[in-house]
Write a structure and sequence with these properties.
Elements lengths: L16 H32 L9 E8 L7 H14 L5 E5 L7 H4 L17 E3 L2 E5 L15 H13 L6 E7 L6 H9 L4 E6 L3 H16 L4 E12 L6 E2 L9 H7 L3 E7 L1 H9 L3 H4 L4 H19 L1
Parallel strand pairs: 1-5, 1-6, 2-4, 2-5, 6-7, 7-9
Antiparallel strand pairs: 3-4, 7-8
Helix pairs in contact: 2-10
C-alpha cells in the first residue's frame, strides 16, 4: 500500500509523450543537482582536511609499508635506511609508526628512554649512525601492552613525529604498521611524504594486500617508489642454491607491471637475516659483503635517485 507522500508515474496511453519527456527531464535535472551537491560537499570536506606538514629539519620522508603483517617490513625498513646511509653523506632517521607493536628498539638494539631538549622535544636515540624514535622507547617495560583507542594512538603518533627533534636529519624512513587503517591515513594526510615503498612476500594473500596498499597510496597522491619482494627465494646455507618456496608462479614482480610501478628487487629468505635482526645488528651491518647487503644497497640507491628526482 502506497503512502500519500510517494508518487509513481507510469507511461500510459492517456499520458502525452511530451508530459513523459518533461518528467524525464525533471529527473535528469534532479540527478544533476545531486551530482553538483556531492561535488560541493567534497570541496568543503577537502578544505577541512589537515594540511600536510614537513618534519622540522627533515628534507625527505619515505614510508615503508605492507598490506599484511609478518612480511618483513620492519627488517626491510631498517636495512634500507642503513643502506642509504652507507652510500651517501645524508643523515638518516627511522620513525617507528607501529604504536602497538614497535620493532625498531630490538632491531636497532636501543632500549633507553630519550632525553628532552630545551624546547621540550625528544632527542632521538642513535645507533649505527641512524637516529631512531619509537613508542618502544617510551614504554617502561618492553613486554607491556598498549590498550589504547584510536584518538590516543593518533596523539602518540603526533608526539613521535612532531615532538621529536629531527634537525639535521636529511631523510626519515617511517616504518608503518601493517594494513591500511587510521595511522596510514593520518600519516598520508598530515605529513609531506615524498614516496612509499610496499613490501610483500610472494604468497597470494600477501600480494593481494600489497595491491590494496598501493591503491591506498595512489588514492592519497603519494608516489609509490616501488615494491620489494621479501623472502622470495630460500638460500640454502650449505649448497647456496636458491628455491622459490612459494612457487614459481607466485611473485611480486608480476603485479608491479600490472600496477605500473617499479620493482626494486627480491630479498632471499635467509636464517642469517632473522638472527641479525633479533640480535640488534642488521644484516647490512653484520655482513657488509653479503649478497643480501648488496641487494639492499641497490634498492637504497634506487630510493636515493628517486628522491633526487622529485
Amino acid at each position: 500500500m502506497l503512502t500519500n507522500n510517494v508518487s509513481v508515474r507510469v507511461l500510459t496511453k492517456s499520458m502525452p509523450l511530451a508530459s513523459f519527456s518533461k518528467s524525464l527531464c525533471g529527473s535528469a535535472a534532479r540527478q544533476y543537482s545531486s551530482d553538483a551537491e556531492n561535488e560541493r560537499r567534497k570541496t568543503i570536506m577537502a578544505r577541512g582536511l589537515p594540511k600536510r606538514r614537513e618534519l622540522q629539519g627533515v628534507s625527505d620522508i619515505v614510508l615503508v609499508a605492507s598490506g599484511k603483517g609478518g612480511v618483513g617490513k620492519s627488517t626491510t625498513a631498517v636495512n634500507l635506511a642503513l643502506a642509504m646511509a652507507n652510500q651517501s653523506t645524508k643523515s638518516i632517521g627511522i620513525l617507528d609508526a607501529d604504536i602497538y607493536g614497535p620493532s625498531i628498539p630490538i632491531m636497532m638494539n636501543l632500549f633507553d628512554q630519550p632525553f628532552v631538549d630545551e624546547t621540550g622535544k625528544m632527542i632521538p636515540l642513535s645507533n649505527y649512525d641512524i637516529k631512531c624514535m619509537s613508542m618502544g622507547f617510551l614504554i617502561r617495560k618492553s613486554d607491556d601492552a598498549l590498550v589504547w583507542r584510536g584518538p590516543m594512538v593518533m596523539g602518540a603518533l603526533e608526539k613521535l613525529a612532531h615532538g621529536t627533534n629531527w634537525v639535521g636529519t636529511d631523510i626519515v624512513v617511517i616504518d608503518m604498521p601493517p594494513g591500511t587503517g587510521d595511522i596510514h591515513l593520518s600519516v598520508a594526510q598530515t605529513l609531506a611524504v615524498k614516496g612509499a615503498i610496499v613490501v610483500s612476500t610472494p604468497q597470494k594473500i600477501a600480494v593481494a594486500d600489497a595491491i590494496k596498499a598501493v591503491s591506498m597510496f595512489k588514492s592519497v597522491n603519494i608516489p609509490v617508489i616501488g615494491c620489494v619482494e621479501n623472502m622470495g627465494t630460500f638460500s640454502c646455507p650449505n649448497c647456496k642454491s636458491e628455491t622459490r618456496v612459494f612457487g614459481d608462479n607466485n611473485n611480486v614482480k608480476s603485479i608491479t607491471t600490472d600496477l605500473g610501478i617499479p620493482f626494486l628487487g627480491t630479498i632471499p629468505l635467509e636464517p642469517e637475516i632473522m638472527r641479525c635482526s633479533d640480535a640488534g645488528t642488521p644484516v647490512v651491518i653484520a655482513h657488509p659483503n653479503s649478497i643480501t647487503t648488496k641487494l639492499y644497497s641497490k634498492m637504497g640507491e634506487s630510493i636515493l635517485n628517486f628522491l633526487q628526482s622529485v
